[in-house]
């Protein structure tokens, strides 16, 4: 065994899997810092920032390996929960399955996968349906969506080297996830000067810092429409604390603090 190894996990679901493989639970830590590479993302004053909202990420189809444990009926019920502003919590997902006399699938990543897939797909749908400003969707396979409004806004993939330019061209950037709010994508948006508009999964995450004053949260389609209709801005956009959070220095400080405490 490598006694001096420490493992940082992206999501809590990985903890049980690592422990099952014999990893010491005291050597597993949550990675809530996702550093943005120095100099890769920044505000470029040579690019005109347009009044538009962009999303970068891939579509989740029901035929994908990770979401094969759902169907159109269950998807409808999960979307109804979101429409009512209710969280896609494990309890609420299990209640849907129970209603249809279906057991929770014996799949280690089921809850997280459903949260990630449904939240992302539905949030992008809302954006394309209600935004009064221009919308651009980038990534993979959004042309497989059943929503024609998404397909009409789909621009294809964007290369990593062009992502800073894209973010600098937009006023808003959509983010929609499950248990993780502090994604690397969020850090990239902040550094590029695009205002993050985030699906509110604060009732699902165990992260300590959720940047309540630095980003704009929406829980329903109506919330999202209100933000874009009124061109809202965060109270404390690009705060020093948030910019410092998404740095390698911040991540190294966390590692060093862990080592010193052992």
Write the layout of secondary structure elements.
Blueprint: E1 7-9, H1 13-20, E2 28-30, E3 50-56, H2 72-83, H3 90-99, H4 110-130, E4 134-138, H5 148-153, H6 163-168, E5 170-175, H7 184-192, E6 195-199, E7 216-218, H8 221-229, H9 240-245, H10 248-261
Q: Into which percent range does the helicity of residues fall?
A: 25-40%
Most strands sheet: 5 strands, parallel
Give the N-terminus to C-terminus distance in angstroms. 18 Å
Average pLDDT confidence is 89
Strand content: 5-15%
List the strand order in the largest sheet. Answer: 4-3-5-6-7
Dominant shape: globular
Return the string of H and E elements: EHEEHHHEHHEHEEHHH
Helix and strand composition category: alpha/beta
Radius of gyration: 19 Å
Number of strands: 7
Helices, by number, come to 10
Ranges where pLDDT stays below 50 over 5 or more residues in a row are none
TL;DR?
This protein has 262 residues and is α/β, with parallel strands linked by helices. 39% of the residues lie in helices and 12% in strands.
């Amino acid at each position: 065994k490598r006694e001096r190894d420490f493992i940082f996990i992206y999501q809590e679901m990985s903890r049980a899997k690592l422990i099952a493989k014999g990893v010491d639970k005291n050597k597993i830590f949550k990675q809530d810092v996702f550093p943005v590479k120095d100099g890769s993302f920044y505000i470029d004053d040579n690019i005109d920032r347009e009044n538009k909202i962009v999303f970068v990420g891939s579509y989740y189809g029901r035929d994908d390996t990770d979401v094969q444990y759902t169907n159109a009926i269950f998807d409808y019920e999960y979307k109804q929960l979101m429409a009512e502003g209710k969280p896609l919590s494990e309890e609420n997902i299990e209640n849907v399955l129970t209603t249809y006399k279906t057991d929770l699938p014996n799949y280690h990543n089921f809850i997280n996968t459903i949260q990630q897939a449904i939240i992302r797909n539905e949030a992008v749908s809302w954006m394309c349906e209600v935004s009064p400003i221009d919308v651009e969707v980038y990534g993979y396979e959004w042309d497989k969506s059943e929503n024609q409004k998404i397909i009409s806004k789909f621009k294809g993939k964007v290369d990593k080297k062009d992502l800073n330019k894209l973010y600098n061209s937009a006023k808003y950037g959509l983010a929609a996830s499950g248990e993780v709010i502090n994604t690397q994508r969020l850090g990239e948006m902040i550094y590029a000067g695009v205002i993050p508009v985030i699906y509110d999964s604060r009732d699902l995450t165990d992260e300590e810092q959720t940047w309540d004053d630095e980003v704009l949260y929406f829980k329903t389609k109506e919330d999202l429409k209100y933000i874009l209709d009124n061109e809202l801005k965060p109270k404390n956009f690009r705060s020093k604390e948030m910019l410092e959070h998404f740095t390698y220095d911040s991540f190294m400080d966390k590692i060093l603090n862990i080592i010193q405490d052992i």
